[in-house]
Batch of 2 targets.
Target 1
Amino acid sequence: MGSSHLEWLSGRAHSSTGNALRSVWRWLNCSLAMMWVLAICSLPLTAISQASETIALQETPGVPSTTQSDVQFESSSDVVTPSAEMATPPANEAADNLLEDTASKLFSEKRFWSLILVLAVCFSVLICTFRARMGAKVYVRPIAGLKAIEEAVGRATEMGRPVLFVPGIMDLNELQTVAGLSVLSSVAKESAAYENNVHVPTARSLVMTAAREVVQAACIEAGKPDVYNDDSVRYITDEQFAYVAEVCGWTQREKPAACFYMGQFFAESLLLAENGNSVGAIQIAGTAESSQLPFFVASCDYTLLGEELFAASAYLSGEPQQLGSLQGQDLGKALAVTLLLAGCLLITLVQFEGLGPYPQIAYDVLYHQILGRD
């Protein structure tokens, strides 16, 4: 196979990997957008149905509508009895109430500043992405766990032992699984460059299909398409602990020298990590499940904490669009931290006397208007 043909396959593999991950990401965004559209559209429909029921009830003959002027009190028995006259509010009043209820449900003035903050974060992401595409340098702090990928794969190759990659136990509708597959692309590329085998057991059939595409594309991109083997990416079972039993058994039999755990994990995290530790493997884990992070930190050499897992794709790929989006999100987080610190400072200053009414006024503006709290 000529070098030009390998370069063509490499470019095609790189584009196919990116297209696969982008397709999954677009599908998730479209699903979220559809949920928002349905939620917004349901508000006026709910208000209209409620108003229609009210109008129909008021216009039904023989159904009394009691008002405050129609109530008479009997001093002897304190019994409330409605009068015989029935008052029916005009239809235009019900229509006005319908419009007011619909407007109040569609837009709340108390959430105006929340809208401003959301728009500010969105614009920061767009601006940072545009700047990154124009060639501006985006700094991403070094992440030790991602820098150690090459070291771990190289160590496994020197020892003549395979590499294990576990993409979590959830399906592709979870963002952590998608983030784990982006890390799998880099691990598979490094393994293919060293002509080593990467074993990827999956707990979902759809994840298996996506993982096979990612590994195959990574092998072609590395210029070693013959290294790819379909049997290295296998579907085990949807059952949590049955899946863990198979992975742990394979770990004890094959004794991988490098283990990667990237995705969403639950009670099986410590079982997997302890088995990898027992065979002397270098282990790199990453998850956004805060309840499982202590187990990975205790039993793995490197751990991606929370959002470091989601930043791994931008860190490893270096694509301007992902780097710009990452920078814009960081600006949004900085804004949230600034508001948090400002609130803490103002609530502290309010406790001191002699500073005048200004701290209290600023606190009320921040708490009631900007944050929309009652």
Target 2
Amino acid sequence: MSGPILTRRQGLGLAALAASASAMGGLATTAIAANKPSFLTKIDFKNPEWNRDSYARLDMDLDPTKEKIGWFRGKVYGVRDNEPVRPLFILDGFSFVRCKRLEDGSYRRMLREIGFYRDVKTGEILKTWHNPYTDEDVRVVPIANDPFNYTISAFRQPPPSYGGLNTEKREPVPFLLDWRYGPDDTVIVSTDIHLFYPNALQPDKWPRESAGAFNRVSEMFTYIMKRRDLENPDLTHVKSVGQWSRINPWLPWMLMGQAPGHISYFCSFGAYDSVNDIPADIREAARAMDPKWLAAPTEDYGPSLSSLENYARQQTPAPVPVGWVPPQPPAPRTLPGDKG
């Protein structure tokens, strides 16, 4: 069978259309290429610019039209002297982050995050929690940080100021992280931060919520990713999984006051492909609080505060019962035959 016969004029007309379409396609491809974020992909652990680009690709999507949806989940433990560490509750949360490229090549990370506490045994979202240290029921306050922004550059940035409370200054040094090759063609990187700064919840105003005049907070992160993803120039975001640990004073809503001890978070983290991947109960709980929690910021604003500073701005001091004193750990144990 033969196809339709074209006249020469018709053939030339279609050829012209094809050429025009090809040219337009080339222009579109050029425009897309011009708008595509540029970043380094050749692995060089000692290059600050490669560290900047690679860490930014882990933490967010360099394409500003896209959002990265992060997740974190794990247990929170109470730590006191003279007794075993105690599981208190489960933390289950997520974040939405967007990238903004700055003129000097740095990246501005624009993020909001929310986290809910779950019952250790049932997994249900907690609205109240029975504090085993004080033997009372307390109202649970979710993590709700909007925003928590910072800059990723070729130089280490100052630590978070938490609304001006942390005034620590550091000399700029090259941004070099602790990278290493892992098994099965993976790459691993670890980061940490250790802070000691004035508490927004001062004991004279917040006797039941404040753990003291200063906050001592440490956070440790480990990311694991595929080497081929890190080297792929088409990936503006590199997927990873990892571990996050945080050492923190007692949470203010636990109403522990200046009781000896602290809490420790031990969580896993990664990224969701879609908002529908977020567990339905915490997704809808976040939506009920405000639909904004299901989208990343589109503008850079502040201040960036942790849940401790947000508590001071959003809550009111709890009443102090007559005769109340902060709970104390048990007395030291003695070994058999120990006469003291």
